[in-house]
Amino acid sequence: MKPYSVLVVDDEEEFVTTLVERLQLRAIDAEGATRGAEALEMLQKKEFDIILLDVKMPGIGGLEVIRRIKAAHPKTEVILLTGHSSEEAIEEGKNAGALEYLMKPVDIEDLIRLFKRASGD
Fold first, then answer.
1. 73 exposure class (CB count in 10 Å sphere: 0-12, 13-18, 19+)
2. Residues 93, 52: contact at Cβ < 8 Å?
3. How many CB atoms within 10 Å of residue 68?
4. For tag attachment on the chain, is the N or C end more exposed, with fewer CB atoms within 10 Å?
5. What is the pLDDT of residue 119?
6. What angle do CA 46, 12, 49 make, to 5 degrees?
7. Which parts of the chain are beta strand (E)?
8. Model-level pTM?
């Protein structure tokens, strides 16, 4: 299995902290951001293989963030995450280049399997 890096972006700080810690315990290079603008700033300094991105966030929302990520980093895989989805949002996310669209809460083992698939393992 080749190493890969993950950026978790969600406005729920406790969710981000907990998930990043759980991924790091599994030897996954993981970092977190709690705002879309923060995630975009981090991407200017470091490339991430996979981004787990919440759709509904204050400021720059997830759908705008994925458009900006895909424009600047087309090979980065983005998995959208939401607590409440609509068919329209799912379609918009897929059209913007999302690999997958997940509903909260997510199972960590399912998420890691998806990360492995996204990284080419």
1. middle
2. no
3. 16
4. N
5. 85
6. 25
7. 5-9, 29-33, 50-54, 77-82, 100-103
8. 0.93
Splitting the chain (121 residues) into consecutive groups of 10 residues, what average pLDDT does each group show? 87 96 95 97 96 93 94 94 78 89 89 89 70
For residue 103, what pLDDT is reported? 86
Residue 85 tokens read as: 């989805």
Contact, 42 vs 8, CB < 8 A? Answer: no
User: Which residue segments constitute the domains of the chain, with CATH numbers given?
Assistant: 5-118 (3.40.50.2300)
Whole-number Cα distances in Å, 30 to 16, 52, 79, 88, 94: 10, 10, 14, 30, 24
For 59, the token pair is: 């400021």
Sheet containing strand 29-33, edge to edge, reads 29-33, 5-9, 50-54, 77-82, 100-103
Q: In the structure encoding, which two tokens stand for residue 38, read together?
A: 């923060």
| CA pair distance 41, 26, nearest whole angstrom | 26
Which of 12, 20, 74 is CA-nearest to residue 43?
74
